[in-house]
Amino acid sequence: MEIAIIGAGATGLLYAHQLANIFRVKIYCKREEQRNLIHKEGVTLIDGEQIMNKKIKVELFSDETEINEDVLIITAKQYSLESIIRNLKKYQNKTILFLQNGMNHITYFHELQQNKIFVGVIEHGAKKENDTTVYLTGKGLTNVAPYNEHHTSLFFENWDSKLKDFPIVMEKQWYPILAKKLIVNAVINPLTALYKVENGKLLSNKNYLITMETIFNEAFSILNVGKKEEMWNHVTKICTSTSKNHSSMLRDMETGKKTEVDAILGYLLQEGKKAKKELPVIHFVYHALKGMENVRMNE
Predict the structure, then answer these.
(1) Do residues 254 and 274 make contact, with C-beta atoms less than 8 angstroms apart?
(2) Over the chain, what HEC string results?
(3) pTM of the entire structure?
(4) What gap in Å lies between CA 199 and CA 212, rounded to an integer?
(5) What is the CA radius of gyration of the chain?
(6) Is the torsion defined by CA of 74, 78, 82, 83 positive or negative?
(7) What does the alpha-carbon distance between residue 269 and residue 278 come to, in Å, rounded to a whole number?
(8) Which domains are seen in the chain, by residue range?
(9) What b/e sequence results for 219-233 when a residue is b if at least 16 CB atoms lie within 10 Å of its CB, and e otherwise?
């Protein structure tokens, strides 16, 4: 079975390396420099004291790229999806798994209805060291659900049965897993980027904790997934277990890259507008981060 990984950031490199243990994998990336380096050096995964390298096929991606693999895993960030969707909508009967933060990507799925669409949520921690190397900073699960029908795929069955060290959990409903992850992302990522702190500082600083609770309450009022107290406990548990981590949004800010604030807080603001609900703190944090992002990207 041949697998295409579209996107070669931290998530793409991690999944390419791990899935190459049992599948034939090809990475599709946008930069020629990265393509050349992966072709020459392979992909290296650093897990504690272990340093593991794999030779993996790689190709440049564009609107015209022909993708022959039957299974596509989209790991590019949400703001890169528009050009990817332009390529993908010409295909039929492919299995496509989307692994993005936020929920804006579901707005594209109507263009891909001739394919089997799945969405996933990643619990692993990964940090990209360079164009060919990724650190595994935390081990977890990949939670996957079909988008609109009860599709199944031999790909997921093989993954589940043959790759026990990189586990997958299949769920029946997509909304709960995406909404649950979105609340976590909405509470932790933007505030750590705004305050420029590690995840754990949100809990140990009483003033940060107040804004954390306020954003949680606003986000929960829109997404309304599960029981509120249990959801808050889930958020604080993740914040504690990743206390020394820099969130992906903070790392993007530190390196002058575009963030996923539109996919996370922007989505919540859109849904709030539809529901005619005011989200004042989310509104403030969203525009504060957009302003910081614009300054950094224009420097």
Answers:
(1) no
(2) CEEEEECCCHHHHHHHHHHCCCCEEEEEECCHHHHHHHHHHCEEEEECCEEEEECCEEEECCCCCCCCCCEEEECCCHHHHHHHHHHHCCCCCCEEEECCCCCHHHHHHHHHCCCEEEEEEECCEEEEEECCEEEEEECCCEEEEECCCCCCCHHHHHHHHHCCCCCEEECCCHHHHHHHHHHHHHHHHHHHHHHCCCCCHHHHCHHHHHHHHHHHHHHHHHHCCCCHHHHHHHHHHHHHHCCCCCCHHHHHHHCCCCCCHHHHHHHHHHHHHHCCCCCHHHHHHHHHHHHHHHHHHHC
(3) 0.92
(4) 11
(5) 19
(6) negative
(7) 9
(8) 2-172 (3.40.50.720), 177-298 (1.10.1040.10)
(9) bbbbbebeeeeebbe
Torsional sign, CA 281, 287, 292, 293: positive
Tens digits of pLDDT across the chain (299 residues): 999 999 999 999 999 999 999 999 999 999 999 999 999 999 999 999 999 999 999 999 998 899 999 999 999 998 899 999 999 989 999 999 999 998 989 999 999 988 999 999 998 889 899 999 999 988 889 999 999 777 778 999 999 999 999 999 999 999 999 999 999 999 999 999 999 999 999 999 999 999 999 999 999 999 989 899 999 999 999 999 888 888 999 999 998 889 999 999 999 999 999 999 999 999 999 999 999 988 876 76
Q: Which residues are part of the catalytic machinery? A: 181
Instruction: Say if CB 243 and CB 200 are below 8 A apart.
Output: yes
Number of Cβ within 10 Å of residue 263's Cβ equals 20
